[in-house]
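Structure first, sequence second, as always.
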């Protein structure tokens, strides 16, 4: 029967680090795309329609803000994974260091 709990702190740390690193890169890429779209939707930017472009610009701004907020939450998941491992290791150490006569 497989173990119910198996923890590899180094594997979790690698994933947490990758999540945080990629989050920053994704937000940076999103900011670059946002600037490109905002510029494109101006009169000299390549896609200007007197009535539609301001609406598209506002819609894209809202989309970009929502996406940035969602991507920022990657850190919350990474922190949660790291805390789970930390708590499990502390619990394991706590049980291991108890005096058997106190049980």
């Amino acid at each position: 029967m497989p173990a119910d709990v198996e923890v590899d702190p180094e594997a979790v740390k690698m994933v947490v680090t990758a999540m945080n690193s990629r989050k920053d890169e994704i937000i940076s890429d999103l900011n670059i795309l946002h600037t490109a779209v905002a510029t494109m939707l101006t009169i000299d930017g390549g896609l200007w329609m007197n009535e539609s472009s301001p609406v598209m610009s506002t819609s894209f701004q809202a989309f970009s803000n929502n996406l940035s907020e969602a991507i920022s939450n990657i850190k919350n998941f990474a922190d949660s994974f790291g805390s789970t491992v930390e708590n499990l290791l502390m619990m394991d150490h706590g049980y291991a260091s108890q005096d058997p006569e106190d049980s």
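Margin note: Residues 10-84 form one domain.
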